[in-house]
Write a structure and sequence with these properties.
It contains 13 helices and no strands. With 226 residues, the protein is mainly α. Helix 2 packs across helix 3, helix 5 packs across helix 6 and helix 10 crosses helix 12.
């Protein structure tokens, strides 16, 4: 297993950038929309989330105060395509009601809030795990965190890096340090890692075509799908 050093992270960033460029992720028109999407994407694909986002947008419910003004039953029906809609409607209604009451919107919230304050604020909410939390902090509030998800874990593990998911903060700190806590770079490397996982590093990987294969242990073990 290889240590996840700065030079390795920068090589991954540069190599993926040549393939994907600036991906402009997260696709949203407001910080509220980012947070809503971060809840909806739990345990489902983004394609399903897009359907729910479209319904919320059509009904003019795509912001925290609008969601807090409707019933959870109505919200559940509007986000059905995202799956687990009863659970997600409860989480989403709770988050939006608190944000609306305390700040009015996430756009207003991000003016002057510190990383620690924002982390504590959202961590106290039901159903906000580490991945969802960091997605909100990074993409909605422009705070420097690294989003570690299943796609990133798969890519880094297959490449042969020492990844301890019981101590994921060490991986996050490695990326933060290597990328100089730069929010734009942190957003883009997360987007690019997810893209390469979906395009190549699938459950049946397309190693031969993958741009990362020259430094990937999985490719070197000849477990290649023709």
């Amino acid at each position: 297993m290889k240590p996840l050093r700065k030079d390795a992270i920068l090589w991954i960033e540069n190599t993926l950038f040549l393939k994907y460029g600036n991906m402009g992720w997260w696709p949203a028109e407001s910080p509220d929309e980012v947070a809503i999407g971060a809840i909806l994407t739990q345990n489902t694909s983004w394609k399903n989330v897009e359907k729910s986002i479209a319904v919320l947008r059509q009904n003019r419910h795509l912001n925290c105060c609008a969601i807090s003004s409707i019933s959870r039953d109505e919200l559940a029906m509007e986000i059905r395509s995202s799956g687990f809609y009863n659970q997600k409607s409860l989480r989403l209604h709770s988050l939006c009601s608190k944000v609306c009451a305390d700040y009015g919107s996430l756009d207003a919230m991000r003016n002057g809030i510190s990383l620690d304050e924002a982390r504590n604020y959202f961590s106290a909410m039901n159903g906000i795990g580490r991945e969802t939390l960091h997605s909100i902090l990074l993409y909605a509030l422009d705070l420097p965190v690294f989003v570690m998800d299943k796609y990133t874990e798969r890519v880094l593990t297959r490449m042969g890096f020492m990844i301890d998911m019981k101590n994921v903060s060490s991986v996050e700190e490695s990326f933060l340090s290597a990328l100089d806590h730069d929010v734009d770079r942190l957003k883009n490397i997360h987007a690019m890692l997810d893209a390469v996982a979906k395009d190549y590093c699938q459950s049946r990987p397309k190693c031969r075509e993958c741009v990362l294969n020259q430094n990937c242990d999985y490719w070197g073990k000849e477990v290649i799908v023709p």
